[in-house]
Amino acid sequence: MDINVKKLVKDAGAALSRVVQLTEETLGTSEKTELDAHLEHLADRANATKTWTEKILRNMEAVLTPNPGNRIEDFFYEKIDKKKPNRLSNLEYVGMDMIEAGNDFGPGIAYGSALNKVGQCQQKLGQIERNFIKDAANCYIQPLRKFLEGEMKTVTKEMSILENKRLDLDACKNRVRKARSMLGQQSESGVSPEVLLDQAERELRVAQSEFDRQAEIVKLLLEGVSSSQAGHLRCLHEFVEAQARYYAQCHAAMQDLQRELAGLSGGPYHPTTPPTSSVSGNDDEQLARVLCDFSASNSEELSVVKNEVITVIEIPGDEDYVIGISGMKRGKVPAVYLELIDASQRKFSQ
Fold it and tell me: 3-state SS of the chain?
């Protein structure tokens, strides 16, 4: 292996010079070149963005995957580029036990039948929860992690290079001041002070040029960090859409379970929460459950799956189709494939 001795010596000398300069600055015996106010402001904003993004990401991961052991396992599988294990949720485990207990007691008796129905609902809720966790990871966690591991790592690296260029610049300034102070004196090295001053000034010009160029690079990167918040805002909207869809699906599943249990026991159905017609607050929007799968045949239509809960908007003058909204996607869906969740309007007019 070829070793460039001259480069190693040069790099070692530069590193030593930076250490000396930093030590003198710490002791207050040497001046420090300050960054311009705009660059300092951008750096402060970037550090704040990095700090809060890391906190939000950690908390979001803890909410979606409360078990720290599972988080470590998922992290390990991501690093080795392996598919994560398809583990069941706690609700699905509860549902399995309830179904087994119901079958053991006997589905012919009221309690056994109720256990079966509740267990099936818990399994459905567990699947809905897993889908939400997957959606949240794709639309929010992964973009934030990519930002930290990509853009912010590059910024941190370039900021470190800028700090080294600043130390080199200040070391050159010190050498120029020292060379000027020796004018008219005899040099110990045998080289005239004028020659030493000329060499120090040339090195200073080079160091100043490299520092200025690196400062511009860092400034551009920091401005990019500020603009990245627009992308994070879009991700946040997608996360809220996924969360709203998750709670709407859970609400619909629990209302179905309440009706089934009321019918099973022969008692009246008293929902614990009033039915809602919209998750967005728009009076023209309603929630609807998909009765069977529908595959879009063109770009104007929306593909939906059975039991999915979507937001719908009726199309004036069109009784056959409605506008369906699922997350960030929207399109036409046949009305006969849907059932309104609002108890006052069970189905679309045919």
Answer: CCCCHHHHHHHHHHHHHHHHHHHHHHHCCCCCCCCCHHHHHHHHHHHHHHHHHHHHHHHHHHHHCCCHHHHHHHHHHHHCCCCCCCCCCHHHHHHHHHHHHHHHHCCCCHHHHHHHHHHHHHHHHHHHHHHHHHHHHHHHHHHHHHHHHHHHHHHHHHHHHHHHHHHHHHHHHHHHHHHHHCCCCCCCCCCCHHHHHHHHHHHHHHHHHHHHHHHHHHHHHHHHHHHHHHHHHHHHHHHHHHHHHHHHHHHHHHHHHHHHHHHHHCCCCCCCCCCCCCCCCCCCEEEEEECCCECCCCCCECCECCCCEEEEEEECCEEEEEEEEECCEEEEEEHHHEEECCCCCCECCC
Q: Are 333 and 326 in contact (CB under 8 A)?
A: no
Q: How many other CB atoms are found less than 10 A from the CB of residue 75?
A: 11
Q: Of residues 212 and 286, which shows the higher confidence score?
A: 212
Yes or no: say if 333 and 324 are a contact pair by the CB < 8 Å rule: yes
Q: How far is CA 13 from its chain centroid?
A: 42
Phi, psi (rounded to 5 degrees) for 321 = -125, 155
Closest by Cα among 313, 136, 104, 85 to 239: 136
Q: Comparing C-alpha atoms, which of 301, 295, 287 is closest to residue 338?
A: 287
Q: Could you read off the pLDDT of 164-213 as tens digits, one per residue?
A: 999 999 989 988 988 888 887 766 666 787 888 899 999 999 999 999 99
> Alpha-carbon distance 121 to 51, whole Å?
40
d(Cα 206, Cα 178) in Å, to the nearest integer?
18
pTM assigned to the model: 0.64
Cα 264 from chain centroid (whole Å): 45
In angstroms, rounded to a whole number, what is the distance separating the alpha carbons of residues 59 and 36?
35
Segment 3-22, tens digit of pLDDT: 666 666 666 667 777 777 77
Strand-strand pairing, 338-340 and 329-334: unpaired
Residues 244/108, Cβ–Cβ less than 8 Å:
no
